[in-house]
Automatic annotation (TrEMBL):
SMART domains: AAA. Residues 3-237 form the ABC transporter domain. Pfam families: ABC_tran, CysA_C_terminal, TOBE_3. It comes from Herminiimonas arsenicoxydans. CDD domains: ABC_CysA_sulfate_importer. The keyword Hydrolase applies. Its EC number is 3.6.3.25. It is an enzyme of class 3 (hydrolase). GO terms for molecular function: ABC-type sulfate transporter activity; ATP binding; ATP hydrolysis activity. This is Sulfate/thiosulfate import ATP-binding protein CysA (Sulfate-transporting ATPase).
């Protein structure tokens, strides 16, 4: 089922939680709603589910206005951060719950329920836990059972609100891969709320980046990561170095260094900032007359495949972070305290008098 929200506005008192949000969630895709705490992700999810009413705007499910449809009629499956399993019921009964509470006319027979629950337990790869109670499960197992329970009623939409938020980093990573594989099998239109950019980039087909109640950017993970539409998106999707200066006719001048800014060919003397990801900096040992920004190597963390370099600019004392391969770090034989030169391989300039 496709989902569309149109011009959604929501206030809590005087506080604007959602400001004219319009979005499409394509059928069968997994979309991540990503953004900092308090940006309105959960409020939007609750409005789509019918748990909250917008002040203005529409939710369209498969093109049909859902305003008059009750939560139950929207056929939505939920998974929340805090496991909402019934403690006094076995895993089997938890998954069967949504089927058992159906009105007699649509309730499946006992044998159909058994078959369905068994299949779902196999799908989440926990069939051996059917007779356990939730307190006897690990956090990750509970979330997989919560997902099986949400899927039991064959939802047309699956809404996941920080489903792995309470788990430790390693389990989180395992579960998000598992969720992606499961999604590829089932293709239920899914919306996944997270404030973890790495999780969103790895799991989603589409990312919606939100900030202070509005949408900053929508796109495939690689598009939003490679072409951030705003300084906010740049900063939110990973580490970034800022080079402040003035932009004039396609050139950013920052501390006496000229950077190409072809997107701003027509700009006349404006304030601008160049954004450069740490891995988009080329690093070399300094030689007299070398072009680039002269820096001192303050610290190097060379663990695993990458070496993270903390550099201090000679001209203004600002810190720069660079990431190079550990192999190159080894070849260069860099030592802390050495003078180096860095050059951006890729830089995006934003011009705005408010930045
Ligand atoms: P988090 O990642 O922390 O869960 P979020 O992006 O999901 O954040 P929301 O839960 O949607 O954010 O909340 C958006 C804003 O609306 C927050 O500032 C929150 O305090 C406010 N808010 C949410 N629900 C209510 C409510 N029932 N009454 C008053 N303010 C609310």
């Amino acid at each position: 089922m496709s989902i569309e929200v149109k011009n959604i506005n929501k206030k809590f008192g005087n506080f604007v939680a959602l400001n004219d949000v319009s979005l499409e969630f394509p059928a069968g895709e997994l979309t991540a709603l990503l953004g900092p705490s308090g940006c309105g992700k959960t409020t939007l999810l609750r409005i789509i589910a019918g748990l909250e009413q917008p002040d203005h705007g529409q939710v369209l499910l498969d093109g049909e206005d859902a305003s008059a449809r009750h939560v139950r009629e929207r056929q939505v499956g939920f998974v929340f951060q805090h496991y909402a399993l019934f403690k006094h019921m076995t895993v089997f009964e938890n998954i069967a719950f949504g089927l058992r509470v159906r009105p007699a006319a649509t309730r499946p027979s006992e044998s159909v329920i058994k078959e369905k629950v068994t299949k779902l337990l196999e799908l989440v790869q926990l069939d051996w836990l059917a007779d356990r109670y939730p307190p006897q499960l690990s956090g990750g197992q509970r979330q997989r059972i919560a997902l099986a329970r949400a899927l039991a009623v064959e939802p047309r939409v699956l809404l996941l609100d920080e489903p792995f938020g309470a788990l430790d980093a390693k389990v989180r990573k395992e579960l998000r891969r598992w969720l992606r594989r499961l999604h590829d099998e089932l293709h239920v239109t899914s919306i996944f709320v997270t404030h973890d950019q790495e999780e969103a980039l790895e799991v989603a087909d589409q990312i919606v980046l939100m900030n202070k109640g509005h949408v900053e950017q929508i796109g495939a993970p690689k598009d939003v990561y490679n072409n951030p539409a705003s300084p906010f998106v740049y900063g939110f999707l990973g580490n970034v170095n800022l080079f402040r200066g003035r932009v004039h006719e396609g050139v950013l001048q920052s501390s006496g260094i000229a950077f190409d800014a072809p997107d701003h060919a027509k700009t006349q003397d404006a304030r601008g900032i160049g954004y450069v990801r740490p891995h988009d900096l080329e690093v070399d040992r300094y030689t007299s007359g070398a072009e680039g920004i002269v820096v001192q190597l303050r610290r190097a963390h060379a663990i695993g495949p990458l070496a993270q370099l903390e550099l201090e600019r000679d001209d203004n004392g600002e810190l720069i972070e660079a990431v190079i391969s550990n192999e190159r770090f080894g070849l260069l034989k860099l030592k802390e305290g050495e003078t180096l030169v860095v050059r951006p391989k890729r830089l995006q300039v934003f011009v705005d008098d408010s930045i």
